[in-house]
């Protein structure tokens, strides 16, 4: 009997129509792969400094939303369904092509249902995801989502990000009180310290202003407006290198696969019935050259030997095909300047390492919180009072956002390889702890999936892994070397934990306008 494992186990028990195009009418959109708008023209206009503003439309919107990605499109539909007049301005309404934002955790799918957007994962060849398979040093373990208390439809969903976004845009624009327009917002319109709308430019180069009592900025991870509304501290710890594997099968069907490789994790998950996304995490700021063949060499010599045998040939074929994409992995804590008349949402507001696929869950959860806060308000025109009222948004979002953000950052650090013996032990302890099954895997996976995003549960499991690792070292023979590594393991654990504890303490923090 393996007493260290048993003792460790005992010690560890703790988010079609394109409606309203400027001119003299709206045009029904029949091509779901692309949304088109007519150019904006001023009907009854006054022009000042080359910027048009429509007298007819001035103040006709209750809310302006900048950006129609996952957060912006979902928010537009949600607020439009509640009767708000919403004006959405999106830089590019053609179908996005991204290598991230393709896995929606079960907790995010529950929020999608709550918002009435669950049909947006239909008819896009999305795939159900029921958990993860974890690989390390030739061993693997299957970790299922704890879905026993839910209906059979509840699971994760994986898909092409662009198809999902287009479905939500179509759903939002089908509402008569939601106007979806293609244009680039160049700046926020400010009057006496209050944001009253935006300046934006259409494809022809003509500039316009749009006004509303509330402007919500959802222009994504590359936001050019966030500096006006927050103190952005963006960290880029690594890059994802993306490939698509075709016509092959994952060892565990309908599961994401995480390989704890050296130097860092490799992910596989289905994005359609015939395609598997591979994301290779490459630490640091500098990537091997794509054009010079260095990246292909790196993938073949460093990564390929660590790929499960069932996926090896398809992985090599994907490299040889040459469609290799890259994306910086950004992390940014929520640090807003509460500003009358404006609010930040989505990746413009808060980002975490995408390893755990929690971004859309956080964004959709934030939309639920904001919807419930705005629902009883009939008049949004008192900017100062609205700003004070929306202070609670930052507090109410904390339990879910902090838990998912913290777990993403901590797991990335633990899952990366290291020559440090204590970090190696922590990595091994985490793998073995999850392999125990039962509450030892259900608890962490419930956190990861957004099904139970409770800060206290995160803290308990975080320390349980550390205690489990120390127990494995000290039993049955606590040699001086093992005791030293155990002490270092605790130190390594707590070095990650300030990130966690600061977020949890901030649950009770309110920032005032």
UniProtKB/TrEMBL annotation:
Record localization: Membrane
Nuclease as UniProt keyword: no
Protein's pathway: Terpene metabolism; lanosterol biosynthesis; lanosterol from farnesyl diphosphate: step 2/3
Cofactor: FAD
Protein topology in the membrane: Multi-pass membrane protein
EC number: 1.14.14.17
One term under GO cellular component: membrane
Domain Squalene epoxidase: start-end pairs: 211-484
Signal sequence interval, chain numbering: none
Single GO MF annotation: squalene monooxygenase activity
UniProt catalytic activity: squalene + reduced [NADPH--hemoprotein reductase] + O2 = (S)-2,3-epoxysqualene + oxidized [NADPH--hemoprotein reductase] + H2O + H(+)
GO biological process, one term: response to hormone
Keywords of this entry: FAD, Flavoprotein, Membrane, Oxidoreductase, Transmembrane, Transmembrane helix
InterPro entries associated with the record: FAD/NAD-bd_sf, Squalene_epoxidase, Squalene_monox
Membrane spanning stretches: 6-25
Organism domain of life: Eukaryota
Function: Catalyzes the stereospecific oxidation of squalene to (S)-2,3-epoxysqualene, and is considered to be a rate-limiting enzyme in steroid biosynthesis.
Family the UniProt entry places it in: Belongs to the squalene monooxygenase family.
Protein name: Squalene monooxygenase
Encoding gene per record: LOC100808856
């Amino acid at each position: 009997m393996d007493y260290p494992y048993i003792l460790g186990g005992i010690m560890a028990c703790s988010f079609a129509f394109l409606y309203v195009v400027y001119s003299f009418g709206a045009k029904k959109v029949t091509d779901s792969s692309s949304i088109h708008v007519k150019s904006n023209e001023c009907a009854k206009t006054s022009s000042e400094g080359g910027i048009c503003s429509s007298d007819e439309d001035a103040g006709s919107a209750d809310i302006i939303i900048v950006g129609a990605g996952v957060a912006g499109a979902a928010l537009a539909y949600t607020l439009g369904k509640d009767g708000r007049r919403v004006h959405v301005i999106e830089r590019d309404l053609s179908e996005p092509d991204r290598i991230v934002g393709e896995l929606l955790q079960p907790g995010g799918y529950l929020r999608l249902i709550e918002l009435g957007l669950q049909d947006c994962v239909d008819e896009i060849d999305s795939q159900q995801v029921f958990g993860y398979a974890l690989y390390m040093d030739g061993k693997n373990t299957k970790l299922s989502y704890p879905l026993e208390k839910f209906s059979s439809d509840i699971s994760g969903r994986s898909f092409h990000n662009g198809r999902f976004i287009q479905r939500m845009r179509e759903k939002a624009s089908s509402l008569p009180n939601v106007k979806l327009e293609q244009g680039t917002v160049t700046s926020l319109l400010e009057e006496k310290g209050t944001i009253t709308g935006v300046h934006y430019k259409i494809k022809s180069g003509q500039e316009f202003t749009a006004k509303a009592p509330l402007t919500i900025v959802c222009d994504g991870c590359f936001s050019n407006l966030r500096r006006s509304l927050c103190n952005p501290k963006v960290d880029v710890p690594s890059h994802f290198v993306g490939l698509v594997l075709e016509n092959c099968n994952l060892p565990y069907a309908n599961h994401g696969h995480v390989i704890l490789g050296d130097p860092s994790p490799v992910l596989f998950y289905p994005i359609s019935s015939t395609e598997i996304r591979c994301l290779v995490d490459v630490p640091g700021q500098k990537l091997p050259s794509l054009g010079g063949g260095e990246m292909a060499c790196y993938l073949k010599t460093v990564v390929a030997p660590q790929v499960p045998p069932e996926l090896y040939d398809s992985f090599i074929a994907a490299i040889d095909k040459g469609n290799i994409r890259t994306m910086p992995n950004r992390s940014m804590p929520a640090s807003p300047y509460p500003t009358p008349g404006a609010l930040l949402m989505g990746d413009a507001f808060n980002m975490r390492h995408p390893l755990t696929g929690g971004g859309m869950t956080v964004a959709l959860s934030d939309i639920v919180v904001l919807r419930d806060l705005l629902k009883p308000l009939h008049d949004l025109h008192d900017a100062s009072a609205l700003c004070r009222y929306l202070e609670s948004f930052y507090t109410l979002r904390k339990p879910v956002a902090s838990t998912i953000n913290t777990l993403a950052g901590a797991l990335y650090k633990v899952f990366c390889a290291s020559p440090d013996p204590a970090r190696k032990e922590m990595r091994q302890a985490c793998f073995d702890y999850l392999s125990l099954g039962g509450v030892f895997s259900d608890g962490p996976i419930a956190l990861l999936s957004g099904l139970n995003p409770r800060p206290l549960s995160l803290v308990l499991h975080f320390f349980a892994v550390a205690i489990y690792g120390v127990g494995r070292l000290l039993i049955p023979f606590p040699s001086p070397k093992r005791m030293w590594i155990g002490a270092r393991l605790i130190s390594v654990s707590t070095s990650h934990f300030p990130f966690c504890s600061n977020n949890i303490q901030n649950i009770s923090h309110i920032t005032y306008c």
